[in-house]
Amino acid sequence: AGIGKCVAMDLARRNARTILACRSRERGQAAMEEIQAATGNPAVVLRLLDTSSLASVRAFASAVMREEPRLDVLVNNAGVTGLPFTITSEGLEQTFTTNYLGPFLLTNLLLG
């Protein structure tokens, strides 16, 4: 939704292979189908990613590095605000992990 969806729509319109990295399979699937229909670009794909989980970040990055011949653009757009203080299963504060640690780790893992 929001800025991320707009960026993905623009990339797909430019005929880019576009990976939607979404936490929710249902919302991601709906966005993928909408973008494919609006742009005529079938190379819009959905992959699950939860940046509040470093294990999810590692699994996503590993799959991208294994499956994609190259990565030209990375848009880190995930973020949360206003959540109650919560510690993740990995022992990290959820908002900080979602907004900073997860995207930082993802970027570094995708640099290869």
UniProtKB/TrEMBL annotation:
Record keywords, A-Z: Oxidoreductase
Transmembrane segments: none
Organism superkingdom: Eukaryota
A Pfam family of this chain: adh_short
InterPro entries listed in its UniProt record: NAD(P)-bd_dom_sf, SDR_fam
Keyword Oxidoreductase: yes
An MF annotation (GO) of this entry: oxidoreductase activity
Record-stated family: Belongs to the short-chain dehydrogenases/reductases (SDR) family.
Name under which the protein is recorded: RDH11 dehydrogenase
Organism: Malurus elegans
Gene name as annotated: Rdh11
